[in-house]
Each structure stands twice: as C-alpha cells, then as structure tokens.
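task queued by scheduler; priority normal; single chain, no ligands, no partner chains; default sampling; output format set to structure tokens
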Amino acid sequence: MKLALTALLLVSSLTTSLMASETRFLSFTQTDRQLESSKVFSEEDQKYYTIASVEVTPLEMQNESVTTAKVDGQKDLGTMIAAAEKLLAFGQKIWKIIQDGKPVVTTNFVPAVSVIPNVDGTSAPFGEMENWSAPAFQKFKVEYKNLFGMTVIGFTYTVAYQYNGSFEGKGKYLTGVTVFASDISVSWGFSFDAASSLVNIANRGTRAQPMASANMKIDYVAKSPLKEIRSSEVFHVVGNGQIVKY
C-alpha cells in the first residue's frame, strides 16, 4: 500500500511539473464577417476588433491526497457514448461551457465522462470499483489579444477528474472528467462561446492491466462586428492522473 501510494504521488508530481510550462499560443482562423450595414469602421476600430494572438497559460494544479474509498456506487454515469478495447465511456458527449460570454452552470447536473471496464460487453458494477483518487483540478488561463495588445476576451477553464479507479484489483480508470469555466471577461463589441466534447477513448495499458485514457476537445468561437475567430484545444487525460496537452 505504501509503495502504491508513493507511486501515485510521484505521478502527481510529474503531472504538476509537466503542466507548469510557459504560455502557449493557440492557432486560430480569423475570417471577415459580412457587415449588416454600410457603417465604415476606422483603422483603430479594425485593430481593436482584430485578434492578434490566443494565449493559454497553465495555472497551478490542485491534487488532493489519494483516498482508497469507493466512489458512490449509486452514481448515475449517464448513457454510453464510446467504446474501445476493454473500455466503455459513459456521460455526455458534448456540452457548452461558455455561452454568450457567460459560464454555463447547471445546478442539478454537471456533465462529465467516466471511462470504466468493459466486462463481457457490459460495464463493470461501478459500486464495486475502488482505489479512486480524490478529485484533481488543473486550471488554464486563456487570453485573446487584439492588435493593440489588449486582452479583449479572457477566462479560466478547469479540467476536473478522478483517476486510479480499479476493478477486482486491476486497471486504472477515470471518472468525473469534466471542463467548466470561470472568471470570464468579454470586452464590448465581442461575443464568445465555448463547448467541450469527448473525442475518443483508448487503453494506454495492457489487456491484463488496462489504463483508461480520454481525448477531450474544447472548441472556441469568438465574434466581433468585423471578424469571426475559431480555435480549439485537445488534451489527453490518463488513468494514472496525467494530463497531456496537444
């Protein structure tokens, strides 16, 4: 037990160091919008409404102490949304995290993805799974800057998940994988939407010792009177607690 706990803490330390990297610049497409009126925009307006960069900065990861307690066995995982060798994914395939510049908050349901064992074509009894980690949280700060260098759109999104779940003493699985937004700031004249989705799942381990993984994607759409800007991010969550950004 002590050895397993040490290994998990080492994974947590490695994940934290990997995520504590420098700011990355996202690629994006920026297209002209068809003007609804004959209004003429000045050179200053055009600079204000044109995006020069989209920057993403990882913030400090929060990873609570590992617990061996079982997750609630009555937990409703939702519908099956993906399948792969020895794995099934349950939850919601796609959900909005920002709409019209505001966080999408659901009081009764938080969309999330679980990747658990596929046992003879059906999911393992969730209540019999154990060794789940405490919830882990990785935050990222996103900034859209215009040609003046002003941040015209800014927000923080959080990737939350639990990992290391096992079934009958085998495997490392995922539950509660979700993305939500906070601290959203959208400057006058801009609108902003974002949605998160599950791309696919895969077994990063062996058939005897599966290690669940999930590729998640966030799509961004920003609009100004002159431009439409689209961008996206993909990240990989692994059953050992690691997050890899692409």
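post-processing summary
- Residues 2-245 form one domain.
- Helices lie at 2-19, 43-49.
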